[in-house]
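1st attempt posting a full record on here, be nice pls
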Amino acid sequence: MTRSYPAPSGPLTVATVQATPVPGDVAGNAAAAAELVRLAAGQGARVVVLPELYLCAYHPPTLAADPVGTHVTADPAGVVADSRLDPLRDAARTAGTTVVVGAAVRHPDDRRTIAALVVDHTGGVRVGYDKQQLWGDERDLFTPGGRGATLLVDDWRLGLGICYDGCFPEHGRAAALDGAHAYLCPSGYLAGSEHRRDLYYAARALDNTMFVVFANAVGGNDPWRFNGGAAIYDPQGRTLARGADEGTDTLVATLDPAVLTATRTAHSMLADLLPGQGGPRVSLTG
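the predicted structure (as tokens):
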């Protein structure tokens, strides 16, 4: 059953980023992220989303060769105190902006996860969400997360997903059923996947009548070359902003709660959802 939350009381300006991090260079990538956050904040962004594994780069050979240096460490409460992230903390605190950024995280029990770190407007850093749906060889390096997560910014509820999570309608639906007004997805889509990249996240928006903010890596070298196309979608899956398939970009859009309300009034799938999709199924012979 959907948890009922009122529409937010005011608009929220968000930014999504496509950029090319350097494999293994957590400090350098954090400094580059800080510049991107300042750029987005200068355009009014209250929330900034950067790509999957941005802080270490999505480059499995480097992650496998240096699992300590490419990871940040979380304490039992999920707090991250790595000094390499100080430029990013400073940028978020100075701008009063919340940042969602991809990282590889080592937990106290030695689990390693693909995480969405949340850098809040005070500069605090914590693990917001661990990727649940691991893709391909990610399973050799990481452990899947065990729970969903919703980020609260002002009175907006922002469901968190990471890349392959968004390929599963159930993942976005779980966020919507928890009252999400928007779904934030740091991602790493490889060149050649443009059709699926553009379809999945527009579909998640329309499926669940919620905004979707999709960030993506771009550039790099084959076979780890990424295709950009970062985008922000409205609750009917229409594009509010989209990046090109190449080049760094910061895209900004304002999420309007009136659009959310009007869409959910006209397209009431969440309210009309049948428990268990209508009970037992029958088989027919044609």
